[in-house]
Amino acid sequence: MTAVITVGVARETAPGERRVAMTPETCKKLVARGARVVMQRDAGRHASFSDEAYTDAGATLVDDAQSVLSAADLLLCVQPPDAAALGQIREGAALVGLLAPQADAARGEAIVARRLVAFPLERLPRTTRAQAMDVLSSQAGMAGYKAVLIAATLAPRFFPMLTTAAGTIRPSKVLVVGAGVAGLQAIATAKRLGAQVEGFDVRPETREQIESLGGRFLDLGVSAAGEGGYARQLTEEERAEQQRRLGEHLKGIDVIVCTAAVPGRPAPKIITAAMVAGMKPGSVIVDLAAETGGNCELTRPGDTIESDGVTVAGPLNLASQGAVHASEMYARNVLNFVSLLLDDKAAESGALSYDWNDELLAKTVWPERAASQ
């Protein structure tokens, strides 16, 4: 009898996490590839995917997480299982998700102890070939969209210009800090809501992208173009000049959406307490970078505060607030990545196929391994 690869999905356990790593759509495609799919009941409920939809797609449902963890050759997740759950995964199995193994010593030790082949998707090379697998980009898009909706809710002003019997209402002035995927989505969303939108990024090559979405590029005369499409850290002199010019500009801004990040490091502090103090009462800051410390000095991750009449919000896991579409995008990204492990060779042998000469696998796997392994 030919061996069959088992793909497992357990319920997410991180507080507030509503996404799921497999949708009925991607489940059906995995089953069509010859995989056996085992899911814990209600794994997709918070993302509005019913158990019935999964069984119709060919999944086998089980009541407890341990039945999934012990059976899976390939385990899919959004956020990493805790150390106790990792200890229940079948030894030598593959684990795919946003794992951040180096952020938690116990987690990393459990992965090594169980000899898991872990693929933290945040390590995926950002190449043209990898775009269809890029979970960071797909989830950042939802986060940028939600951040603007939160800002519009908190702001005591209309975003669009309105002509009413009571007079003309001027449009809100929105500044988006950072023009990565989240920032560009924020710019597009604020523009659709009718705001007057500016985008600020220390990478000059983002000007064209910001302007293509109808925003105005805020040029403060400081460039931090880096490698791989990311920003480099600014020198102290560059930061001082940037902050001086930015502080003056913020006095006329109604809403700031912060999205700037440096991979593997705390978020750069761009909006100082002094800048916030200089803003108009009723202004709003939504700091999408709160999960890595925030771009604003006053940001408290997970909280919304008021300082001298300015509201500062530090929402966490914004992508989870759009769980349906975020899960659909995430699951498709994951399917495209695990397809590298489920090639014809895997179908014939009934075992996952690891081509360590493929840079997408070799540069994503943790701990790193040599191509000959």
Describe the secondary-structure layout.
Layout: E1 6-9, H1 24-32, E2 36-40, H2 51-56, E3 60-62, H3 65-71, E4 74-76, H4 83-86, E5 94-97, H5 105-113, E6 117-120, H6 135-154, E7 162-164, E8 167-169, E9 173-177, H7 181-192, E10 196-200, H8 207-212, E11 216-217, H9 236-250, E12 255-258, H10 273-277, E13 284-287, E14 304-307, E15 310-313, H11 323-338, H12 344-349, H13 359-362
Parallel strand pairs: 1-2, 1-4, 2-3, 4-5, 5-6, 9-10, 9-12, 10-11, 12-13, 13-15
Antiparallel strand pairs: 7-8, 14-15
Helix pairs in contact: 1-11, 6-7, 6-11
Structure description:
Pfam families: AlaDh_PNT_C, AlaDh_PNT_N. With 373 residues, this protein is of the alpha/beta class. The protein has 13 helices and 15 strands. The strands form three sheets. A seven-stranded mixed sheet has the order 11-10-9-12-13-15-14. A six-stranded parallel sheet has the order 3-2-1-4-5-6, sandwiched between helices. Strands 7-8 form a two-stranded antiparallel sheet. The chain is elongated, with a radius of gyration of 23 Å.
